[in-house]
Request: fold
Amino acid sequence: MSAPRLPLRIGRSQGRDGIIAALFSPRAALQRLLEAARRTAPSQWTLTRADVHGFALAVLLPILAGVVAQVFVALFGITQLSFVFLTAVICVGAFFGARPGVLAALTAFAIYNFFLVEPRFSLQLATADDFVTLVLFLAAALATVSLAGRMRDQARVSERRLKVTEALFEASRGLALAVEASQVHTALAASAAKALGLRAVVMELKPSGVWEHSASVSSVPLAADELSHLSSLCDTSDPSLRWRVEFVRGRQAVLAALAVETVLARSLSFEDEQTLASLAVLGAVALERSALIAAMAEAQTLAEGERLRSAMLSSLSHDFRTPLSAILASSTTLLDFAEDLNAGAKNELLRSIHEETERMTRFVSNLLDMTKLDAGALRPNIVQADLGDIAADAAAHVARLAGERSVRIVRLGPSISAEVDPVLLEQALVNILANAVDFSPVGGCVEIALSKNARHGARVEITDNGPGIPKASLTRVFEKFYRVPDQNGERRSVGLGLSISKSLIEAMGGAVHAESPLHEGTNPRGSRFIIEFDQKKAATL
Amino acid sequence: MSERLLVLLIEDDAQIPRVLRHPLAAAGYDVLLAECVDAGLAAVAEHKPDIVLLDLALGDRDGKEVIAAVRQWSDVPIIVLSARDTEEEKVAALDLGADDYVNKPFGVQELFARMRNALRRRSRRRSGQSVMNVGRLTIDFAARRVTLGATLIVLTPLEYDVLRVLAQHAGQVVTHRQLLEAAWGGAATRDNQHVRVLVGQLRRKLEVAEENLPLILTEQGIGYRMRADEDTPAGAL
Reply:
């Protein structure tokens, strides 16, 4: 806390006339000093170290000037030495302001008269010339001090303004970092306390219509009765001797109230009032922005929920209808045209029913798993298991579906064991393999390779020679219901399998990512899904 | 049927053609398959199929492009096979000139009934028949006369226009917009309410003594379908 400086108050509030009045009218100056003292808490009104130095030098420097003058007189016999004293007076005035300057001028006047003007060592004057010289000296000293003091006071005003600007700048930075309303309140209270050097409290209006304490900066905690007093002050907007309440007004409503404790000062200086008002405006902007951010976040959450719901519905309608069409068309054909069909046709229709039923079963179990994963109800049963066996089972399962399009599934690499849930891992692999098969060309080949990764963990790679995945979609393919735009497998993917696989693998402590394309060029092709389990979870047999 | 009709199936899901070719062959159709918009258009131009079965989701392109392009030079019946069941999709496809649509999943009998309907309409239009019977209702297009049994039904000009369009497309859906254009012309109001009122009046005049089967069926959100004389498709919406 820095105490308001008295010279500033005089210089600032009264302007040039005030300074001159202070210089030439001691009574008025004293009155102003007392008034200023009253405005400030007694504990805060102490002479600053600089003031003490100023007054001390106001006495010492003219004395030093007198000694120097004596030396000049003794050595060179020069008696017109007023410039030595003027220099001392200007120094005091320029560095310590008007009051020490005036004191220095008077001291210099007395010493000059006493030591250098005949009769020396007396305050009496011998001639009218001496009298005129002395009076001119005093006038020059006072005028110089007045100028020097005024410049210094102006410098102080500028300094003070700079401090206000800096305080506001710092406040705006603090407020810009605040995202939530409570953070804005805290930043606002801190800024006000720092800028004004006073206890600061931010009150907020609750939906119930009651003003409540939200943030404060104070060396002593605020007592309950102080808070209820503040609350009623905000409510009634009554003026208070102790608290200056500034409302933080948004474009439509009062958003908060910023209160600073003025105690005995009764009112704030003009600059402090301005600072307070500026802080309230900054606070209002920050609070409105925070409300907007909150509204945006809420809208985004709603939109995301809505997107998932509509994706789910469209997936249900599309991904159920397509296999159901094949099943219904096949079964009604078998029922209605049995006599017209040869054995091969009947077999093909039955196989179609079987394959599409499998596809739907996979879809339904994925939907159920997704629901369970979302609800956190799926608990992996982790055991040490042979990944080779699991991969073989998954490959065999998918091969049944892939048979028609003669996509081969090849297993490579040594057998590796890891701590996984075999059932969930097989399901995860089936989803990724089925996706790879769906996007493979007829007669293509899907590879599943096991190896140790760089950290001695287990690594499973599933590689296909399909159209690949655009860079922008490499992470998005794991999102629910995401489909790579402008791309279709011959049998379109459901948009759920990869998302579920990722969740399952992560539930077992593993990680999965995709790489694509594997072959660059005009016709980029191929994608690879890499599943890894940490070293501590895996060991080579 | 004496001659085998050619069906063009435009569909990119491999399962549907694989299944449909058996019943279509058994029912006396030859089947031609196209997997995308361009191949479909080329096949229509080259092979002049008797009827087109069209899936609307063709890879990254929209099957509706096929309808718009084909209708510029051909009136071949087009039946949409759709897994999308939004009303806007159906209305858009019908407005573009599709004859009918079948929602996936469908039974083959329903599909065949719709195909027969579309083919009959084409042959009726080609034969230039001027009198049409639906149940006890008789419409003489040449004389603008409508009779229910022996009773002459008096219709306003607007009512007659709506009835005429529905009858000419008997068994098929006619969208609100198509009815508005038929009755009021292109520049007229676009308020479906007018159509609803007219159809209500028609129903009061024509269905009073009619048997339990309604004459004009409502296709919710899309338009109306007049019952065809010969059959009522199983599973019709």
About this structure: Residues 217 and 235 of chain B are 13 Å apart (CA to CA).
